[in-house]
Amino acid sequence: MTPFVSLDRARGRAELVTEVWRLGASGAGATEEDHLAAEEPLEIRLGGTAEEPGTPAAVVMRTPGDDFDLAWGLAITEQLVDDPGAIQSVHWGAPADDNAVELRLRDGYETTPVEGARPWLVSSACGLCGKDSVDAIRRAVSDLSGLGPVLPVDVVVGLPERLRAGQGIFDSTGGLHAAGAFTARGEPVCVREDIGRHNAVDKVVGHLARRGELPAHELVLVVSGRAGFEIVQKAAVAGFTVLVSVSAPSSIAVQLALETGMTLAGFVRQGRANVYSGRHRVIPAGAG
Question: What is the pTM of this model?
C-alpha cells in the first residue's frame, strides 16, 4: 500500500485530508485519515488597475485564508511600501485567481519597493531572507519606550492559552503557527494561523491596517513560536509595544527589543515568563 494518497478532498482551503499509514509502538500499522495544513504560493502585486495587473513584489508560501490581511500586512512589515497609508484597497489578482493578490495604491505613490524589501520568492519559514542589512531594518523602527499599556503579570502569563483557544485549524492538523493581537486586559482582537510564523504575524498586522488600527501601540502581540529578530522587527514596524512568545527569543531579537523600547517576554508558559526588556510595562503579582 502507498500510505500517501492524492490530496483531493479539501476541508476548507487551509486544511486537506489524506490517508496515512499510522504505526504503533508494537510495529503494527493501520490506515487512517489524517488532516494536513495546506501550503500554497501567493503572489503579491503592487499598484495596477481593474484593467492592468500590478507590479509583482513577492511570492510567499502560505496557508490559504486571510490572504488580503497577509498581503497588506507583509507590504507594511517588509516595507514593500514606504508608507502604510499608501495602500488604498486590496483585490484578487485576476478572475477566479485566489493565489494572487493586488494592493492598489493611492495617487502619488510609487510601486517601487523601498530599500531592504523582500526578494521575489519567500518561503513560509523565510523571515528576513534577502534583507540588505540589519541597519536598513532598524532605520524603519521608531522608539516605543514611552508608549503602550501596563499589564498585570497574570494577564501576560495567560495570553498563550487565550491564543491557543483561537487555533481552530491547529486542533486538527497540529501543523500551524499562530499570532494574535490582544488588548491590555487579555481580550482577543484578532487571531490568525499560518504554516509560516512570520505569515501569521503579517496576517494580524494586515487585519489591523485594513481597519485603520495601526500603529498598534495599545495592543499586545502574542506568537506561538520563538521570538526571532524578524518577529520583533515586524512587531515594532506595526507599533506593538509588547510582544509575548511561548518560546525562546534570540540574542539579536532581545537587542532590537531593547533598542526600540519594546517589552519582550519569552518562555511564557505554565504561569511563568522571562521578561527580557521593557519590564516597566509588567506589574508584578501583589504590587499596587
Answer: 0.84
